[in-house]
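User: For a benchmark we're assembling, each entry needs the component sequences followed by a predicted structure for the full assembly. Here are entry 17's components. Please fill in the structure.
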Amino acid sequence: MNMLDLDAPYLRLDTAILESNIRAMSASAQARGLGLWPHAKTHKSVEIARRQLDAGAAGLTVATVGEAEVFARAGAPGIFIAYPLWVTPARAERLLKVASQTQLRIGVDSPSAADQLARFGIPAEVMIEVDSGHHRSGCPPEAAGALAAHARRLGLTVAGVFTFPGHSYAPGRGDAAADDEGRAVSEAVAGLKNAGVAAPVVSGGSSPSAAYSRSVLTDIRPGVYVFNDAQQLELGACTPEEIALTVVATVVSKPAGRMVLDAGTKTLGADRAVWASGHGRLLEHPDARITAASEHHATVEMSGPLPALGSRILVVPNHACNAVNLHDQYVLTGGSAALGADGGSAGPVTWAVDARGMN
Amino acid sequence: MNMLDLDAPYLRLDTAILESNIRAMSASAQARGLGLWPHAKTHKSVEIARRQLDAGAAGLTVATVGEAEVFARAGAPGIFIAYPLWVTPARAERLLKVASQTQLRIGVDSPSAADQLARFGIPAEVMIEVDSGHHRSGCPPEAAGALAAHARRLGLTVAGVFTFPGHSYAPGRGDAAADDEGRAVSEAVAGLKNAGVAAPVVSGGSSPSAAYSRSVLTDIRPGVYVFNDAQQLELGACTPEEIALTVVATVVSKPAGRMVLDAGTKTLGADRAVWASGHGRLLEHPDARITAASEHHATVEMSGPLPALGSRILVVPNHACNAVNLHDQYVLTGGSAALGADGGSAGPVTWAVDARGMN
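Assistant: Structure for entry 17:
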């Protein structure tokens, strides 16, 4: 089967670049003495998680109970739900099963959430979430000690603290966000110590701030690095050669000097940060900009001759995590993984997006 | 089964409001003598399409071949793929099958796309797409006549012209966009007449411009009206009472006077127009604003006392079409459709998002 016979738009994964990205992050974490817990919400794929673990990851980070179920079943040695879960009876049953399959850690940022965990007897370690400046979830650093002490009084085991310095997602903010992160988790760790809670884990990091992360961290949870995307490119956190994931689109319309592709927000996602140059980038046309996107249209402006109608174009989504969740499978290319067992004649090799929609 | 036992976030559909929205649009189209071809990309649901057809819709509009397959199989009498499709060999096979099941119309905005349709012998009627000011796909109105003549020379049947006045999606722009639409399709229709192509259909409309649409139209293709969403609300195209679709979320965190819900861009979609007040609205808290959204977090600012941790909150997505495509099913509420055959004791009634991911 020829790749042109595949109906576009589809998700294309270059496995050679994927494996190189996985190796590079493992080497970087190891060199800095950091435990690597890759965030699997980015890829939602058992095949990719297995490669991350084989390359030295200590465990996997996830955002939801559904993701935890998929990766626990697949044999991950440890799973950290880095999210302030609210445990309900239905959810408790599922968490008990996950905890029987793997070492489970769960984020907590309020006494009430800790109460729920204890009430249902979930045998998970608690990770105290701290707000380091992103102002999303997470308790203030100065409240971490009291929260940890509360959890311990409930009989829960506190493994440590974590934060997501998401305010690093703006041009030139990586270093300052890492600074905030270092200060916040240091204060939280001191608070735990003052409260008499000995908890060894200090987990942090975001892709744009990872290179700057301070030595107080023991663990990192990068996600997007496996694929990279237009956001990371435009923030300077990756090069074009490190982009493993694209959406293959078709040129369907060329009115009045512009070009319209059949990949839109239902295949690329609708993320567009205020600082983004557009709705994604074209891997092979660095000067092109996607100036508008609707569900099934990406409008491209570029200099030079426009590709012919019917041409296939590789689109780099702004945000890989949301793009992946819109697809059921990856179509592999690049390196030996793209070949089927019989050498490739049987058609394209695909990997499932196993946890798609489990949000 | 209690609705609280359902693991949130999930998609909640009030069927009483849904049915009222369907009836109102059918009555409005009938009163104006317009053929109603609802856009099924919004709901991707056979159950909902059936109700639209039962209420008097002439056929269904879709955006992709995958959607056409789902609704042709379900027995839709006519399907209009309102998109400038590029036909490949693999796609031709699928289109031939769809054309054997229903009356098929396909959008065309270039001579080359018409050539492809003819080359593969797809027995579909051609609809010429015209740009009426949205500047996405569509040929200029003055080019419609020549394109229609070209299609006819290829042996294709030209059914008419269509446009999408998508530039209506901004506050106060509905009337002006309807004006542009009227002018563009009138020029296109005149062009077809000059080229000797008699084609009866003139299809247009968008939800914010529908109320203003000019009498030159014969057909309309509204989509979002079945559900409505935060965009339509903020554009004044619907009232809160006409909103049938919400995402049920849980309050998971309440740090420092704000509230964080567990519905984010992976369950609500990431659409946020420049004029939108935030990343969605809370149905029961009209003054609340979602000031930030990430994949699994919606950060809410509101006055008055915040709901308790663990509370369920009804979130109105900014853009229903993208929100629906993130879910596998609707959970029904409101009216008799929410009751199971045995009166509701067997658990929640759901409808599948049949064409989810077929983008």
